[in-house]
């Protein structure tokens, strides 16, 4: 077994310890440098192993429970979990088992458990790969599954779970007339790639003729329909996918975000694509000005992005969502004061919870007599009638387009202000 494969596995176990033990999100761990010491290919491998283990965790734990008299320390458990996923996905048994035995064996605290790791993984190697495809699609934890069933019904949630298990293809938004990698053009205009590999090696990356953006995430700006020369505020802009769309339309864009670190990505993205926007670090609740149009992509539970972020259901427990819902309402109320009479505002969240979407808009309509929902803003190509909600927003879910590979969950509403 190569040292490099073992290093990637050791790092994946560390990431699993952080996510499952400390409730940290994978992007937080990466930003804190968890994989900085690895070579680029090992970094990619460690991330892929972590993600695949989390996607299959329910199956993994059901297989392991038959072979464990008691649950071992978390890090040993995670080594067994990772080994189980690799074995069930067809990785050669001797490589996986030796590597996990070496990793656990070198631990001062848990080294004595290397015999257990060896014995358990050998049993998994014998019967796991046959059992794996017959097991049920992993379910969301109850704290999230229950409210989603209340909102969308059990069949829909099973469809979402299937989409989460399948993972997400790579979607690109093209700058108009752009050169792009060969892929499937989706009904809404995004280009979808399967097995894309390393993004920076795809044609057009250096030239900045496209950017990575889930097909659903590209739709809020379609609903806003920016025009050249309009003064547009992107209130929660980072990392900037929607800022790029607004700038590509020729709008005079102000991109604001509270996070300096995340704004670095906005600036990098603008530079690579050769697009222009005024970038401001600041709090949306304190920003002042008057704009023709506003995009409010509010901070949210991100429960619509689990296909790409399977760490979320394990790192979170829903306890922070109440604060987020309150912040969204305050942001929407403040953003409304920044919109000129006759202007339009698109509110969106990448959430599956109606409290962060449909309910926010229903409540805002009750508070602002000069606010109307513009259903006609959603009449662009690829939008299906059944996606339009009662109050006139657009509800997108991961179980939509199953034959095409799904989409992120999103809520989008276009609000007009009386002139
Ligand atoms: C859903 S993300 C935005 C994604 C972005 N619109 C895009 O398309 O790439 C939400 C953003 O809100 C920012 N944010 C959170 N609280 C904020 C506040 N009080 N003022 C401004 N930005 C805030 C976060 O830093 C985060 O970048």
UniProtKB/TrEMBL annotation:
<feature type="binding site">
    <location>
        <position position="297"/>
    </location>
    <ligand>
        <name>S-adenosyl-L-methionine</name>
    </ligand>
</feature>
<feature type="domain" description="SAM-dependent MTase RsmB/NOP-type">
    <location>
        <begin position="132"/>
        <end position="418"/>
    </location>
</feature>
<dbReference type="GO" id="GO:0008173">
    <property type="term" value="F:RNA methyltransferase activity"/>
</dbReference>
<dbReference type="Pfam" id="PF01189">
    <property type="entry name" value="Methyltr_RsmB-F"/>
</dbReference>
<dbReference type="InterPro" id="IPR001678">
    <property type="entry name" value="MeTrfase_RsmB-F_NOP2_dom"/>
</dbReference>
<dbReference type="GO" id="GO:0006355">
    <property type="term" value="P:regulation of DNA-templated transcription"/>
</dbReference>
<keyword id="KW-0489">Methyltransferase</keyword>
<dbReference type="InterPro" id="IPR023267">
    <property type="entry name" value="RCMT"/>
</dbReference>
<keyword id="KW-0949">S-adenosyl-L-methionine</keyword>
<dbReference type="GO" id="GO:0003723">
    <property type="term" value="F:RNA binding"/>
</dbReference>
<comment type="similarity">
    <text>Belongs to the class I-like SAM-binding methyltransferase superfamily. RsmB/NOP family.</text>
</comment>
<dbReference type="InterPro" id="IPR049560">
    <property type="entry name" value="MeTrfase_RsmB-F_NOP2_cat"/>
</dbReference>
<keyword id="KW-0808">Transferase</keyword>
<dbReference type="GO" id="GO:0001510">
    <property type="term" value="P:RNA methylation"/>
</dbReference>
<dbReference type="InterPro" id="IPR029063">
    <property type="entry name" value="SAM-dependent_MTases_sf"/>
</dbReference>
<feature type="binding site">
    <location>
        <position position="257"/>
    </location>
    <ligand>
        <name>S-adenosyl-L-methionine</name>
    </ligand>
</feature>
<protein>
    <submittedName>
        <fullName>16S rRNA (Cytosine967-C5)-methyltransferase</fullName>
    </submittedName>
</protein>
<feature type="binding site">
    <location>
        <begin position="236"/>
        <end position="242"/>
    </location>
    <ligand>
        <name>S-adenosyl-L-methionine</name>
    </ligand>
</feature>
<dbReference type="InterPro" id="IPR006027">
    <property type="entry name" value="NusB_RsmB_TIM44"/>
</dbReference>
<dbReference type="Pfam" id="PF01029">
    <property type="entry name" value="NusB"/>
</dbReference>
<dbReference type="InterPro" id="IPR035926">
    <property type="entry name" value="NusB-like_sf"/>
</dbReference>
<feature type="active site" description="Nucleophile">
    <location>
        <position position="350"/>
    </location>
</feature>
<keyword id="KW-0694">RNA-binding</keyword>
């Amino acid at each position: 077994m190569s040292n490099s494969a073992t290093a990637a596995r050791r790092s994946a176990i560390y990431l699993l310890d952080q996510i499952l033990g400390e409730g940290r999100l994978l992007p937080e761990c990466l930003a804190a440098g968890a994989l900085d010491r690895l070579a680029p290919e090992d970094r990619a491998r460690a991330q892929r192993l972590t993600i695949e283990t989390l996607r299959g965790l329910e199956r993994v734990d059901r297989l392991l429970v038959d072979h464990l008299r008691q649950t071992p320390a978390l890090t040993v458990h995670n080594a067994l979990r990772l080994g189980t996923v690799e074995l069930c996905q067809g990785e050669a048994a001797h490589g996986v088992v030796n590597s996990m035995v070496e990793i656990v064996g070198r631990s001062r605290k848990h080294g004595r458990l290397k015999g257990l790791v060896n014995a358990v993984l050998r049993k998994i190697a014998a019967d796991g790969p046959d059992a794996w495809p017959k097991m049920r699609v992993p379910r969301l934890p109850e704290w999230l599954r229950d409210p989603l069933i209340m909102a969308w019904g059990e069949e829909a949630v099973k469809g979402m779970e299937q989409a989460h298990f399948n993972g997400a293809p790579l979607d690109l938004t093209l700058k108009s007339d752009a050169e792009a990698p060969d892929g499937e053009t989706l009904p809404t205009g995004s280009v979808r790639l399967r097995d894309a590999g390393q993004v920076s090696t795809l044609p057009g990356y250096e030239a900045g003729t496209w950017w990575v953006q889930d097909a659903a995430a590209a739709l809020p700006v379609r609903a806003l329909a920016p025009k050249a020369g309009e003064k547009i505020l992107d209130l929660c802009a980072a990392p900037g996918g929607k800022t790029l769309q607004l700038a590509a339309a020729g709008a005079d864009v102000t991109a604001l975000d509270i996070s300096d670190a995340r704004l670095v990505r906005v600036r990098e993205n603008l530079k690579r694509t050769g697009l222009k926007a005024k970038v401001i670090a600041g709090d949306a609740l304190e920003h002042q000005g008057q704009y023709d149009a506003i995009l409010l992509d509010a901070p949210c539970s991100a429960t619509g992005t689990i296909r790409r972020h399977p760490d979320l259901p394990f790192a979170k427990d829903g306890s922070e969502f109440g604060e987020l819902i309150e912040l969204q309402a305050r942001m929407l109320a403040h953003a409304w004061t920044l919109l000129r009479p006759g202007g339009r505002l698109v509110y969106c969240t990448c959430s599956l919870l109606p409290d962060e979407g449909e309910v926010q808009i229903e409540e805002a309509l009750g508070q602002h007599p000069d606010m109307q929902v513009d259903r006609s803003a959603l009449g662009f190509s690829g939008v299906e009638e059944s996606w339009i909600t009662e109050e006139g927003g657009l509800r997108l879910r991961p179980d939509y387009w199953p034959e095409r590979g799904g989409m992120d969950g999103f809520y989008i509403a276009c609000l007009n202000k009386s002139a």
